[in-house]
């Protein structure tokens, strides 16, 4: 398998049949333009690799991902062509794991925010540290909650809780996320990788066809709401041309609360 198109990803085989995909980047593994593109495109490349019976997603250095990097956001704001490219990638980042024919497990340590959380929650089984910090992050930036949020949060949490956390940009610990049903398991922070690998190994040893078909049928639930997903993505990316995102981006860089009343 030629994986040269994915130089920012590390591919390991920690157990037979388990392909581990790792990434490392500045800013708590924030997705640069290149990393975002590679994590969106890797799923099609792996689809026909028969040796892969389960995929394990891991951010190196104790953080899953803080979401899109400043560089990615600034590139989108500077170029309509880049904005449309990233819009396509954002769709693939969510639908890639959902449509991938084998099970995908996410080991969520530290933080999972924005696009990072989208990748995690699009996986089949999410194992999070109890003290991990999960946050959608879009409204804090000044754009609509897009990516995975409108598609997956109402299905996992119910509409009332989804509205509360997405509109108020309220974070969740891994422990809270498990209690509410946003993730499958919350374990002690130092046990996240160990438990996620155990789950991935069990899945890799399971009946390949039965698991694939079960996953496909279960994921018809989110597929039924793809119109909502596409609408939320369009509204999110429309926001990158607005004034509110300017204040949101400044606030993130200055590590302060945004003042959106001043951005009208």
Automatic annotation (TrEMBL):
Q: Which SUPFAM superfamilies does UniProt cross-reference here? A: ClpP/crotonase
Alphabetized GO MF terms: enoyl-CoA hydratase activity
Q: Does the keyword Lyase apply?
A: yes
Check the UniProt entry and state the signal peptide residues, or none.
none
Gene3D superfamilies recorded for this chain? 2-enoyl-CoA Hydratase, Chain A, domain 1 (3.90.226.10), Lyase 2-enoyl-coa Hydratase, Chain A, domain 2 (1.10.12.10)
Question: Which keywords accompany this UniProt record?
Answer: Lyase
Entry EC number(s):
4.2.1.17
Task: Report which superkingdom the organism of origin falls in.
Answer: Bacteria
What does the similarity note say?
Belongs to the enoyl-CoA hydratase/isomerase family.
What PANTHER family would the database entry show?
A: ENOYL-COA HYDRATASE, ENOYL-COA HYDRATASE ECHA15 (ENOYL HYDRASE) (UNSATURATED ACYL-COA HYDRATASE) (CROTONASE)-RELATED
Q: What is this protein called?
A: Enoyl-CoA hydratase
């Amino acid at each position: 398998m030629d994986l040269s198109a994915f130089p920012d990803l590390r591919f390991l085989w920690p157990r037979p049949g388990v392909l581990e995909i790792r990434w490392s980047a500045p800013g708590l593994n924030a997705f640069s333009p290149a990393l975002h593109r590679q994590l969106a495109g890797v799923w099609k490349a792996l689809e026909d690799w028969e040796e892969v019976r389960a995929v394990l997603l891991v951010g190196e250095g104790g953080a899953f991902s803080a979401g899109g990097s400043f560089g990615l956001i600034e590139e989108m704001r500077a170029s309509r062509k880049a904005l449309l490219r990233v819009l396509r990638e954002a769709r693939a980042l969510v639908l890639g794991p959902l449509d991938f024919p084998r099970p995908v497990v996410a080991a969520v340590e530290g933080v999972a925010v924005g696009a990072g959380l989208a990748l995690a929650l699009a996986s089949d089984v999410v194992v999070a540290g109890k003290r991990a910090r999960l946050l959608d992050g879009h409204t804090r930036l000044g754009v609509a909650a897009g990516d995975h949020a409108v598609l997956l949060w109402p299905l996992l949490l119910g509409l009332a809780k989804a509205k509360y956390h997405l509109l108020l940009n309220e974070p969740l610990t891994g422990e809270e996320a498990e209690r509410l049903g946003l993730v499958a398991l919350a374990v002690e922070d130092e046990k996240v990788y160990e438990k996620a690998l155990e789950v991935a190994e069990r899945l890799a040893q399971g009946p390949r066809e039965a698991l694939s078909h079960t996953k496909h049928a279960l994921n018809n639930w989110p597929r039924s709401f793809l119109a909502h997903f596409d609408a939320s993505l369009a509204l999110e990316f429309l926001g990158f041309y607005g004034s509110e995102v300017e204040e949101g981006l400044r606030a993130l860089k200055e590590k302060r609360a945004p003042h959106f009343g001043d951005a009208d």
